[in-house]
Predict the structure.
Amino acid sequence: MSWLPRTLRWRLFLILFAGLGLAHALSFGVLFLERYLSARAVMLTNLESDVGTSIALLDRLPAAERPQWLARLARPTYRYEIGPGLPGVPELSPRAAEIADTINTAAGRQFPVTVERIPGPRLHLQAHVTLSDGSIVTIDLLPQVMPLADWLPYVLAVQLLLLVLCTWVAVRLAIRPLLRFAGAAERLDPASTATRLDEGGPTEVAYAATAFNAMRDRIAHYLAERVQILAAISHDLQTPITRMKLRAEMGEDGPDRDKLVNDLAEIELMVREGVAYARSAHGDAEEPVRIDVGSFVESLVFDYQDIGKPVQWIGGATAVATTRPHALRRILTNLIDNALKFAGPVEVEIMATAGRIRIGVLDRGPGIPDDQLEAVLQPFYRLEQSRSRDTGGTGLGLAITHQLARAIGGALTLKNRDGGGLAAEVMLGAASPGSDR
Amino acid sequence: MDHVDHVLIVDDDREIRDLVAGYLKKNGLRVTVAADGRQMRAFLEADRVDLIVLDIMLPGDDGLVLCRELRAGRHKATPILMLTARSDETDRIVGLEMGADDYLSKPFSARELLARIKAVLRRTRMMPPTLAVAEAGQVLAFGRWRLDTTARHLLDQDGVAVGLSGAEYRLLRVFLDHPQRVLSRDQLLNLTQGREAELFERSIDLLVSRLRQRLGDDAREPAYIKTVRAEGYVLAMPVETAAARR
C-alpha cells in the first residue's frame, strides 16, 4: 500500500472522497441514461407517426401546392424539401440506422426510401422519398444531441465542492481527537493538573478522554506513592541514623569508629539520593523563572572555585532562558561533581544553537565506553571501573540528573570527546537573545 | 567572668537531645533541652537564651510554626538554627522564610552543629544592633535591581534572574543590610564568611569586583559599591524593602 499517502488524514479523505464521488457519478450516469432512452423512444414514436402522415399528405397534394405546405410540416429537428437534396454517403452510424428504420417503417411500405448521411461535424441525415407521381421529397434531419441545461456544469461543480467540504470536515472531526490525545500523552505531566483532557465531545471521544484522564491520575498516584514510600523510609531512617552518628562521634577515637562513621555516611547518601531520584521525575513544584544563563553558570563555577575546586568557565554565548533554576543548579552540580570525582579538572561552556541553549560540562578523564553511554543514565547502573575503584557512590547521580533534565523540558546527552574525556551536555528549552547588559 | 553562651535545643527525640546537649556542654556551652513547643515556651518565659536549635518535625506545633511565633514575639532577635528533615531546597527556603538564621539537615554531625552555632552567634554579634537585618522572605530593591531573599534571585528591571555565587550573595546581603554605611574589609570578611569556603582579606576585593560586574557597575566609577580609601567599601544606594512576592 505504498501508494497511499502517509497521513491518516489524507488516507481517510481519499477513501471517503473516492467513495462518495464514485457513487455520485454513478447515480448521475444512470439518471442520464434513463432520460436518454426515454427521450429517444418518444422521439422515434413521434417521428414515425409524423413522417407517415406528412408523406401521405404530400403524396395526395397536387405537385403545385406542395411547397406551401412544407413550412407547416417542418419540425424543430427535421423539415421537408422538394428535390433530390444534398449528395451523401450510405454508411450509417447505429443511431442514424435507427432513425432510417423509423422513416422506412413510416413511409417505406408505400414509397421507396433511401437514407444517406451528409458528411459534416454533426449528425446530418437526408431521407429521399420517391412519391407516387415520381417526384422526390427530401426529409432533412438534424437530430438534436440530448439537450443539456447551461447551469448543469455549475451545479455539478457546487456539488463536488460540497462533497470535498463535507469529507474534509468529517476527516477533521475524526482526526482531531486523535491528535489531541497524542499531544496530551506527549505533554503528560502527572504533577500538574493542567494536562487534563477536556472530557466533552462525541460519546466515543468523551469516553477515551475520561479513560485517558483516569490513566493520568493512576500514574500520578503511583508516582506520588513512590515518593511517599521513599520519603517515609528516609524520614524514619533519619532519626536512628542521626542517633548513631552522634553516638559514634562521642565514642573513642579509633579505626572502628571511623569505619562506622563511613558506613553511616554511605547509608545517609543512599537514602538522600533515593528520595532525590523519586522526586526528580516530578521536577519539583518549582516555578520557572527567567534567568540569565551566563551569570548563572559563572556564579556556579565561582562557588566551586571558592572552595578550591578546579572548575573553569570557558565562556560562550549568553542568553536568557525560562527554566527552573534549582533543578538546573542540581543538574549542573551533579555533572560537575561527577567529573571532579572521576576525571579531575572540569570546564564548563555555554553554546547557543538554533535558538536553544546547551551547557556543556567537559573533562579530560577516562570517558565512558561508547556502548555504555546510554546505560549509565539508568538508575543503579555502574561502570566496572567505578565499582572496582570503590568510588561508586549510589549509582543514582546520573539517573537523577537525566530525569531532572527531562522534567525541565530539556535533555541530557553524554559523549566522548575527541582526544579523550567526557562531554555532558544539557540542552535547555527555547531561548531568547541575551539581555543588553 | 566570661559570658557562656546559652543554647536551647528543641527536639522530640530524647536520645538525640541528650547526645547533642552532652557534646555541646563538653565544648563549653550552656545547654537546656526541650521536647516540644510547650516546654520551649515555658522555659523562655523564665529565662533568656543566646540561640535556639529548633527541629522542624515536632509533635503539636511544628518547628516552622514555633519559628514564626518566636519571630513575632519578644524573641525576635534570638538567632534560630533550624534542623530540617532533608537538605531540600524547598525546606531550606521555607525555613529561612519563617525567619530562621541558618539550617542544618538531618542526619547531622555534632561537630558540624557546633560549628554552625558558633558561626551564627558570631554573625549576629557582628551586626550593629541598631540596624535591623532584613527578614528573609522580603524583596530588597536598590537602584535598578531587586533581590528576592527567599529564592535568592537577583532580578534586573525586566525580571530576569541573574546568577550569584554563594559568596557573592552573602556579600550583597551584607551590603544591603547595611546600606550607605562604610564597612571595613575585616567586617565584610566576617559577615560574608560562608560555611564551606575560607575567605581571606584579599578575596573580599575579588568578591567586590565580581559583584560589581554582576550589577553592571563600572569599576572605575562604581554607582553601587564604592571604594573608601583605607577604610573599606560602602553601598552608595538606598535600599527599599518591598513586599514579598506572591
